[in-house]
Amino acid sequence: MMRVHPLAMTEALLSSESPSIRLHGARLYQCIVVIGWTERLAAERLGVHRTALRRAIAGTSSLDPDLSRWLLALEAAHVAHPAPRRHKSIAGLLAEQT
């Protein structure tokens, strides 16, 4: 199975063709990892209960569309503009997924 670069996936998800995207499962977890948040910090920053975030990561629920779009945009910014000292680690993470 061919994998798509996360930034390309994010651009597709943020397009006007899919205005009600709701992140869940592995894609939600990937966003959190790329941004560099712990589960606790992600829940705090998203303003959701940790249990609700865990359920979304498990795939039994999903984030609201406004939070999903914001999280995807934040992930895209982190991928496009990594911190100078993290550049290699993010590149390595993305290379492992392709």
The helix content, as a percent range, equals 55-70%
Architecture (CATH level 2) name: Orthogonal Bundle
CATH topology: 434 Repressor (Amino-terminal Domain)
**Radius of gyration in whole Å, from Cα?**
13 Å
Uncertain segments? none
Total count of domains: 1
Total helices: the number is 6
Largest sheet: number of strands, sense, barrel closure: none
Shape label: globular
Content-based structural category:
mainly alpha
Overall average pLDDT: 80
The fraction of residues assigned to DSSP E strands is under 5%
Multimeric state of these chains?
Answer: single chain
CATH class: Mainly Alpha
Order of helical and strand elements: HHHHHH
Question: What is the CA–CA distance across the termini?
Answer: 10 Å
Number of strand segments? 0
